[in-house]
Amino acid sequence: MHVPLDDRVQRWLDQAAIDLAIAVEVRQRYAHQACFHAQQSAEKVLKALLTRIAGDAIPTHELERLMLTLVKLDIIVPDDVRAHARSLDKFYISTRYPDALGFADAALAYQPRDADAAIEGAQRVRAWCDRELAIARASDANPP
């Protein structure tokens, strides 16, 4: 079954919005899970942008790798967006497994302030991706 490009992009964006809503909802009680869902949200908006520009996203969970792929496609990723993404990358594994940090359970290691920073980072990545998606859509509507 062929899924139109705009629908595929929207699926990524919808899932990203759900992850961000979960992060906000659980930030106080389950900060480690909020951090994970914030990372997932940023991953999915980056994959939405890659899908829009390249037709598909690469199979990775590393935000840094997704951004490098965008750079290879001549997309300029601002330094602040890269910094937020790098900080979010550390939450992919460490927040999901009780032994991932080695010294402490993630549920004890992460605090609501960590979740707040992760949520803000995901929101910044989302805002940038939304702007880039608007540019991509506008260029499709107005070919050279």
Annotate the secondary structure layout.
Blueprint: H1 5-26, H2 31-54, H3 63-72, H4 79-89, H5 91-94, H6 106-109, H7 112-141
Helix pairs in contact: 1-2, 2-3, 2-7, 4-7
Report on the structure:
The chain is 73% helix and 0% strand. α1 runs antiparallel to α2 (31-54). The protein has seven helices and no strands. The longest helix has 30 residues, at 112-141. The protein has a single domain (5-141), classed as Up-down Bundle (Four Helix Bundle (Hemerythrin (Met), subunit A)). With 144 residues, it is mostly helical. It has helices at 5-26, 31-54, 63-72, 79-89, 91-94, 106-109, 112-141.
- Quickly count the helices: 7
Query: Proportion of β residues?
Result: under 5%
Q: What are the low-pLDDT stretches, counting only 5+ consecutive residues below 50?
A: none
The pLDDT mean sits at 93
Output the structural class: mainly alpha
CATH architecture: Up-down Bundle
State the total count of DSSP E strands: 0
Order of secondary-structure elements? HHHHHHH
Report the CATH C-level class.
Answer: Mainly Alpha
Helix content: over 70%
Based on CA inertia axes, which overall geometry fits?
elongated
Query: Tell me about the biggest sheet?
Result: none
Rg: 16 Å
Question: What's the number of domains?
Answer: 1
Could you say what the CATH topology is called?
Four Helix Bundle (Hemerythrin (Met), subunit A)
> What would you give as the CATH superfamily?
Nucleotidyltransferases  domain 2
Measured between the Cα atoms of the first and last residue, the distance is 32 Å
